[in-house]
Amino acid sequence: MEEKLPSSTVGHRGRIAVVTGAARGLGRAIAQGLAGAGATVVGVDLLDLQETGQLVNKNGAGWLPIQTDISSETQVDVIANQVLSRFGRCDILINCAGVVDGKTWDELDFAAWRRVLSINLDSQFLMCKAIVPLMKLNSYGRIVNITSSTVKAVMPTQIAYRVSKMGLIGLTRGLASLGDVGITANAVTPSLTKTELTVGVGIPEERYAVFTQAQSIKRIATPEDLVPTVLFLSSAESYWVTGQAFSADGGASFGLP
């Protein structure tokens, strides 16, 4: 198909954006960033979304909270139907939902493995399968999957988590096949960021210090640090970029030339 050049208007005004994991951390910051750029935001999470809704509403943006379990195929179909009924399409999907396991190989059992993979990878697949048809209605879509810098780290724990995040990079590359119908897909890999999730798994302060010293920018990341990269990849201006995994990690790693 012939590529249509993007509008010269920078921003997301008029776009419909679905953000999973929107109740806290990176997902909440991304939802707020999209709202500030003019998008209508559909926040999805198993947790309460009231605080995210208040932040989105401060920007005067449209807001639809959906509190549900995205590891359920049935519930994901309900999400897609609600978005279609309310807005008639979807333009942007940000897959940010995830959980972390702190188990070593000897501690990791199949039940824990399946729990992490079902939320961190299976649910992302389900969301894409449900939302892509809504993007095809308008021959336009931007998918951004949030991965993790731990996929490049030597660690005795978070095995299932890191496998799920590597799988998400593979899913991103598979989704790049949708480029001919106006849909792009990219992944963003943040450095260690202090959020409710990382605090909840008990990462010690000295671990943050180690990561900080390994970065070119010598401070720990905040959720807001990831937002500009996500905003670009979810914009019309990113139309020539797809299937890529971007390290937004303060210079902790360098890609191959």
Task: Give the topology.
Blueprint: E1 16-20, H1 25-36, E2 40-45, H2 50-58, E3 63-67, H3 73-87, E4 92-95, H4 110-136, E5 141-146, H5 159-175, E6 183-190, H6 196-200, H7 205-214, H8 227-233, E7 245-248
Parallel strand pairs: 1-2, 1-4, 2-3, 4-5, 5-6, 6-7
Helix pairs in contact: 1-2, 1-8, 3-4, 4-5
Q: What descriptors fit this protein?
A:
alpha/beta; 7 strands; Rossmann fold; 257 residues; seven-stranded parallel β-sheet; globular
Biggest sheet record:
7 strands, parallel
The helix count comes to: 8
The termini sit apart by: 30 Å
- Written as H for each helix and E for each strand, in order along the chain, the element string is EHEHEHEHEHEHHHE
Decide which structural class fits the backbone: alpha/beta
CATH topology: Rossmann fold
Shape: globular
Kindly state the percentage of residues in helix: 25-40%
Polypeptide structure, described:
By secondary structure, the chain is α/β, with parallel strands linked by helices. It has one domain (16-193, 223-248): NAD(P)-binding Rossmann-like Domain (Rossmann fold, 3-Layer(aba) Sandwich). The chain is 40% helix and 15% strand. The chain contains eight helices and seven strands, in the order E-H-E-H-E-H-E-H-E-H-E-H-H-H-E. The protein has helices at 25-36, 50-58, 73-87, 110-136, 159-175, 196-200, 205-214, 227-233, and strands at residues 16-20, 40-45, 63-67, 92-95, 141-146, 183-190, 245-248. A seven-stranded parallel beta sheet has the order 3-2-1-4-5-6-7, with helices on both faces. The radius of gyration is 17 Å and the shape is globular. It starts with 15 loop residues before the first strand and ends in a 9-residue tail after the last strand. Residues 1-9 have low confidence and may be disordered.
